[in-house]
Amino acid sequence: MKLNWGTAIVIAFICFISFIMYFVINMSTDKKYDHDLVVEDYYKLELEFQTDIDKEKNAKTLITNITWKKTDQGIVITFPENLNKENIKGTVFLYRPSNKQLDFEIPISLSDHNLLIPDKRLLDGRWNIKIDWTYDNKPYLYKKEINY
């Protein structure tokens, strides 16, 4: 059987389309290529972006900002010593970029200007920490990418 160039072009197009369809179907059904959004309410958080910028500016005006360190018990977050710890309120949100099931939020309850996040809640790897807190009704925000 002899093929002319028109038939060869049609066969090439059919092979190319089959190749592309194989990859589209494979990528859409394989669970290892399933990725989540960074956050569910992306547009809602985008509207709050300016308030986050203002909170971060407030945090930069502090004499000392929040610090953290890794210990055997977990992560110890230290709030500024010159502030009264009873007036510090807020939440700590830890975000795991690779797995949203590991994300968690805890309220701030200080003991001697320190907050301990237990080791059992954290896996090794990258975490984004976001501390949204207020002191005497003035909002502050601390964001950091950490490797635990």
What top-tier CATH class of the largest domain fits best? Mainly Beta
Terminal CA distance reads 66 Å
Gross morphology: elongated
- Judged by helices, strands and strand pairing, the structural class is alpha+beta
CATH fold node name of the largest domain = Immunoglobulin-like
Using only C-alpha atoms, the radius of gyration works out to 25 Å
Mean pLDDT: 86
CATH architecture of the largest domain: Sandwich
Helix content: 25-40%
Low-confidence stretches: none
Instruction: Give the number of helices.
Output: 3
> Topology as H/E string?
HHHEEEEEEE
Spatial arrangement of strands, main beta sheet? 4-3-6-7
| Structure summary, number of beta strands | 7
Question: What can you tell me about this protein's structure?
Answer:
This protein has 148 residues and is of the alpha+beta class. It folds into two domains: 1-34; 42-147, Immunoglobulin-like (Sandwich). Helices cover 29% and strands 31% of the residues. It is built from three helices and seven strands; from the N terminus they run H-H-H-E-E-E-E-E-E-E. It has a four-stranded antiparallel β-sheet with strand order 4-3-6-7. A three-stranded antiparallel β-sheet has the order 1-2-5, with no helix packed on it. The protein is elongated, with a radius of gyration of 25 Å. 9% of the residues are buried. The mean pLDDT is 86.
